[in-house]
Amino acid sequence: MRARTLAVVSLGLASGAWLVARDYQRWLSLGVGGVPSTPRGWLKVTRLRTQKHEARDPRAFGAIAAGPHDRTWLPELPSREGPRPDVWPYPVPHRQASQPGTPHGRARAIDIFDEHAAHDPAAVTYRRSFFEKNGEALTVLDTADSPPEIVTAQGEFAHIHAADGSMHVILSPTDAAQVLSRGWGERHPLAGSWPAMPLNYVLLYSPRSVDEAEVVRSIVQAAERYARGSTQEPAAPRD
User: Fold this and answer.
1) Spatial CA neighbour of 172 closest among 78, 72, 77
2) How high is the pLDDT of residue 9?
3) What is the rounded CA–CA span in Å between residue 99 and residue 104?
């Protein structure tokens, strides 16, 4: 009986060790994010996974108190066709697990980001991402008129992930709600529950075509206008 118990315990420990090793390697395969790609970083992310709002649907924005900066800068978006992509369960890095976009769609999205960084260099530029801690993010240089969450993020309002072509943006609550309802993205699982990560911090799915990248253009433009605050005019009312 004792030998059988020891065998069962040994098998359980071996299985547990294999599951941990597989999870760690899968997490590493997603690339760098806001924590070091080390066992200590994985442990931190594992703890963060317990902080996610499991009862909150990341694809439904829900009610949020409107502040003085909450208005719309988006035109009416078309609905994204087909099923949403799967997303890995890791909050950092927060990445898609399926539908990694097409080469043409992803290349166009990168061009769109570059165009935003170049169109008004006195106001917007690339800087190291506040959230990802590596790579570059579109950043407003003057945050005097910006919403508080943009000030906290040191001006960052959008960045793109090389690994899968997905993006993170900070939108006005109203625009974030439209992006989620039309199927173009979902909230970060820690949004609103992790310091410095606002409730309107949204993952945009990787574009599967050049046409989808043009929708991304509208969303990134809306994010920039929100980030710049009162210096930008809101979009015309939608019918």
Assistant:
1) 72
2) 46
3) 14
Angle of helix 210-228 versus helix 173-181 axis, rounded to 10: 160
Domain ranges of the chain: 31-239
Q: Structure tokens of 206?
A: 């990787």
For residue range 1-29, list pLDDT tens digits in order: 566 555 444 444 445 565 566 666 665 66
CB atoms within 10 A of CB 205: 25
Q: Measured between alpha carbons, how far apart are the two ends of the chain, in Å?
A: 75
Prediction pTM value: 0.83
Quote the Cα angle for 128-225-95, to 5°.
50
Rg (CA), the chain: 20
DSSP assignment of 23-73, as one string? HHHHHHTT---SS-SSHHHHHHHHHHHTTS-TTS-TT--------TT----
Which residue, chain included where needed, has tokens 């909150």?
56
